[in-house]
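Task card 7
Instruction: Convert sequence to structure tokens.
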Amino acid sequence: MGRYLERFRATEAELNAWPDKAEAARRHAICRACKFYEFRPAEPGAPVTGTALCWRKCGSCGKRAKEPHHAQLTLPHSHKRCCKRWYSSTQRTSQPEKRGLGNGRRILVIHRTGYRWPKTRAIHDYLNADGWVAPRKDTDQHGPSLAMVQDMMAGERFDAILKWEEHGCLFANKTWREVVAWCHENHVLPLSVDGGYFDHYGTLMLDRYRPDGTSSIRDDWADLPVAIDWTRAHEGLRNYRQKMLAEWDADDPPLEEPGYVLVWLQFSAMLSRLKVDRSRLINDWSRQIVQVLRKAGHRVVLKAPPAQHKSGYEDHGCPLYRHKAGIPHLNTRLLKYANYNVLVSSSVTNELVLQWAPVWTTGRSWFDGLGVFAQAAQWGDVAKPPTMNPDARGKWINWWLSRQFYDRGVSAAMDRMFTHSYRQLGWTP
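Output:
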């Protein structure tokens, strides 16, 4: 790195001008961005109070850029592109002792081409920046075969594989379950990533497949506490909860006469446990649900999801509220005046859980068989109000608070996942 950087030091007199030696040592620590530093005093003989300036010279274009000292890397705006690759390579070669949380552990990131690419790229970049060795391999399948995964590994040893999943089970087909079983036999953690639960579109979560391809929530369930301590949750999740509670307390009038059953639509009914025509996406499911509820004398209101198929929704002769309807607090206002709720497996249940609302589910997800929601075994079940298990709800919330993170927290979440999984599986790191 000496070829590209010039070294600047504070003088001995400047160091001695600081009455607090501990503060002086902290202020004169080597810059984490370039490993060199400069301090300029405000005036001759005065304590060092100026800005620390770091000098970098790009190995490609030869230009230097002077940037304010930051705790984290900030590349020069004038020539980011040519500096980025050079800077990354010098960091890897010059600081092998600082491996970050990853500490050189290897994760094969499997990406279904075009699927959630921005999030995949962010996960890949954050992991590699924090000491994980995480090469990305693209595939045209959500559940690639064992032969394909072994070909991606190219004979190299990996500590884990990571791919996208939905609801802990949607892409866990037969071929992928064979991969999962092989991973467990060879002490390779089979991991999945999905959108988080609370603040669904703003967060992510990590999960581990069990040998049968199901979610590790079943391994955690018995040890989860019932009491919920929101003070231990991430600040972003606490803020999200407060926002939703404030919407409930707002003096908003009902959008429909109170006392209806609220049916939450989603993109498709692929995860429905009740028999539906999946070629019609959600429409066959919603038609049968509306028929059952009307036959039982209920009024029905439908709510569309943020992501909907271009084919749209069939008219079932009852009110349908679109996601972008321009109505303040739309979901909360519909929920507040409903008798109970019916859905397949949508993550909108996070809003329902915060308000302890009664819910019927007809689909598969992490919550299967855990008592979190009432689960319909047949169409007619949804005609009566569902029961609710507060203890299961408490465990459910605590599991999600332990698994969710915001994008930049993926490295710490991955480290926790490794520690927790190795302990639970009895593996040696």
